[in-house]
């Protein structure tokens, strides 16, 4: 006989088309009797941790998360933990300079072998552009080309990549467009890999927080960047620091320059992101809203173009998971089964979230004073 907590959770799931111990590919198979209490008590964090611990399973995790989000079940199950998570985010500054390198150590330095077995051949760790693409390698090359075209790249331009990852854009811009590129990242593993991978090109990769960028040191006295790009890094800045970030970019860029921001975006303004992801995947992270970005660029930039291709992230994440899952045997000696379940939950729950259009992917082109005769939107 079911108790009240079990009945509540079962009823909520049923309203989303999910049954407990059913035969469908989205039906949750409960393996531990305390699953229901944990979810009701700890909400999204408990749901994710219970999966990592093997307390429940499902055939199609991505499809399950899609259904739960489309039914707004995440809004219906709130916990005291979530309240404390939001309170902490309001009081503290998770994106302050002293915390800038934490995500590098805890996520991006997990081992290049992991990412080499998961990502495309260029190690581009952000949403691919799937227009006319047949696979993730093509989608990522399309994305890099799209960025260069949006920035109207020309040979000899001085370009800054804030949050350059393993250097995929830096290498592409130098190789294909003859740009002089400086990339910065908070990951030691990425710096080492990117500098080796781009050897022979006009590319320099630095271990640096964006607040420490000095153009006099990097370019020479009085020189500024023609183009600035930031791909998949703004999610680590924190809402309390958005104005600081935009002001920094403004100071680094020539008056006739362009800045392209590629970032995940939220449908509403919040002060804290998902507590499970914040704890296990991206510490100190925050997904910005249109309103928060708008406030940060006010009186600094002209918004020239705003492109949403968030639906493309679903396909990108599913490709990453397929690679990760297929190659797990060759890398699992460095990790454990709980890591496998954590990473699977991360990739597939994110895919379901983008599929539900719960989050977006924006490319925003900004200028200092506006482009004469207007900016031609490129797709």
Structure keywords:
globular; alpha/beta; two-stranded antiparallel sheet; Rossmann fold
In short:
The chain is built from 17 helices and nine strands.
Q: How do the SSEs run, as a string of H and E?
A: HEHEHHHHHHEHEHEHEHEHHEHHHE
Number of spatially distinct domains: 2
What fold name goes in the CATH topology slot of the largest domain? Rossmann fold
Helix and strand content put the structural class at alpha/beta
Proportion of residues in helical segments: 40-55%
How much beta, percentage-wise? 15-25%
Structural shape: globular
User: Stretches where pLDDT falls below 50 for ≥5 residues?
Assistant: none
Query: Care to count the β-strands?
Result: 9
How would you portray this structure in words?
- The radius of gyration is 21 Å and the shape is globular.
- Helix 3 packs across helix 17, helix 12 crosses helix 14 and helix 15 runs antiparallel to helix 17.
- Strand 3 (158-162), helix 9 and strand 4 (180-185) form a beta-alpha-beta unit.
- It is built from 17 helices and nine strands.
- It is an alpha/beta fold and 379 residues long.
- A seven-stranded mixed β-sheet has the order 5-4-3-6-7-9-8. A two-stranded antiparallel sheet has the order 1-2.
- The chain has two domains: 4-78, no CATH class; 98-367, 3-Layer(aba) Sandwich (Rossmann fold).
- The model has no long low-confidence stretch (mean pLDDT 94).
- The longest helix is centred in the C-terminal third of the chain and has 19 residues, at 337-355.
